[in-house]
Amino acid sequence: KMSDIQTKKQDQKLSLPEDLKNNGAKLVIFDIDDTLVNTDTEINVVRDGKIIKPLNSQEFTHYKLGPGEQFDFSRFRDSDEFAKTARPISPMIQQLNRDIATGNKVVMVTARADFNDKDKFLNAFKALGVNIDGVDHVYRSGNIQDKIPTEAKKRIVIGKLLSQNLYDKVIMYDDATPNLDAFLSLRQDFPHTDFYAWHVD
Questions:
Q1: Which one of 7, 37, 152, 181 has the lowest number of neighbouring Cβ atoms within 10 Å?
Q2: What does the pLDDT look like over 170-197, one tens digit per residue?
Q3: Non-local CB neighbours of 156 within 8 Å, separated by 6+ positions
Q4: What is the pTM of this model?
């Protein structure tokens, strides 16, 4: 529910509720695009081999394919373009680094699929001040081939993560409210875990 999603302005320091500051097992999930970094990368909508419309990451989240349309993710998999255009959202990178420093399990869950150069992609984060070595894993929900919305793919990834371990708390940062709503819907499957959704505005 939207009432369960708290908003984190990109230029504000986050102050978590007091009950999040204990020593329970905690999983922290960060989206990448428009949450940790801004980029100029676009996804093309193509039909009959021709580009119909380019979409930025926010537009992609809400776009519904029309008859005969497909997404072209070639630029979204380009590590070189990511490295050249990624601009840090500093408060969120600081938050990620704090979560790593306090011993939380930190992962990234992105709508992107595999990059064409994994090392260049990871080194781009290091150049932006991210303690990428402290991130447990970068999950690419775009690798899921099912023709389902991004939020459904992320829900699958996060559900599997929660099934692998018992967490007292799980926190998700994302700029797209459909992703956060899908995340919160997992409460019914994991009733002993507290869920906290932060909308990065």
A1: 7
A2: 999 999 999 999 999 999 999 999 999 9
A3: 141, 144
A4: 0.84
